[in-house]
Predict the structure.
Amino acid sequence: MLRTSQRNYYLVFLIFLTFFVISLLTNIIGPLIPEIIQSFNLSLALAGFLPFAFFIAYGVMSIPAGFLVEKYREKKVMTTAFILALAGALLFALFPNYSIATMSLFLIGLGMAMLQVAINPLLRVSGGEEHFAFNSVMAQLIFGAASFLSPLLYSYLVTNLPLAEKQNLWLKSLRQLVPAHLPWVSLYWVFAAIALLMFLIIFSSRFPKVELTEEEKAGTWAIYKILLKKRAVLLYFFGIMAYVGTEQGLANWISQFLKTYHGLDPQTAGAQAVSYFWGLMTVGCLMGLVLLKLLDSKKVLVIFSILAIILLSLALFGPGELARWAFPLLGFSASVMWSIIFSLALNSVEAHQGAFSGLLCTGIVGGALVPLLIGWLGDHLGLRQAMFVLYLTLAYILSIGFWARPLISNETIWMKRKKKLAASQQLKADQL
């Protein structure tokens, strides 16, 4: 039997690994869009329906997953999630066609939503509450690293599988499993193997009992009704929708845009641009941690939103070489938006933060709607004009920096000094 400290370290590692896998499976859709369009002869709208099928699962499952975790606990929810992911990946790997792809992505999305809900409270308990903030940041960095690597894995497979001289065991095995004209389908065999491995690891692991805090509990349907009557709750819900819609609207259409307007190969240059988009988002998270100790979070949100609007303009209207770098830099400018919007939202209500958090996570459905809208408009207006939708979502995010009125603001080093100075002056006054 493992001692508690050993078990905790092991589970922290397992949770980090789960974050890595979630990101690996979630953020591969964008680089695949040009391949899917070409392989299945799709319109932009039909291609946009693929991320819709994946992210609509978050809207469907985020709140129910909270109830499932409370009733069946984390281990059962996580093993079920990986069974769903395994089924989805295998389904598409065995029957690679468009209709199966939508069903497959929906199943994988359900699994990823369940995992997102289950692992955060588990991280708090297994790593210790005093280390939760540090471990949460580390988890996001690991999530970003996987997002950076997944397009590179795709690029490696599609460029090496068709080459007969590449004879390592991994490539030889995949070459026998996938149609010669669809080498990118090999990714879903890899995902199936990863999901199966994660299921076996979690099934054989011992989990501690997690006592959910009030902030982590899912709440009741009555509480959700109360929250939905509050104007601020709805405004922040749309803020999360706008952010995830922006993130996925970019990640899913970068490669196709570079191919359409600048003739760049989606298997190499397009995949690299998406990879750097996620990589620079991770770098931006680190800088954001520093800035949030220096500036009010609303000011940081305004600065990064304006930067994002400028970069989007350069990406959409600049020459190919500029667009190739402006798109990835948009990942940097978007890096702080999720955490700031989420924290401003939770700090703007006095109670029911757990239920409110579930509602906000349901806003991830924005990642379903915006890419689909861009695809539909792209068929009618052209992809460049369709991506003007992102100006609207970024404008909404920018507006949050002006109208947000949190009950508690983030503590900066200047605020901390003022508090210390005030306390010191009060102490001197009391002594007199």
User: Anything to note?
Assistant: Residues 1-7 have pLDDT under 50 and may be disordered. The domain at 219-432 is CATH 1.20.1250.20 (Growth Hormone; Chain: A;). The chain has two domains: 1-218, 219-432. The chain is about 80% helix and 0% strand.
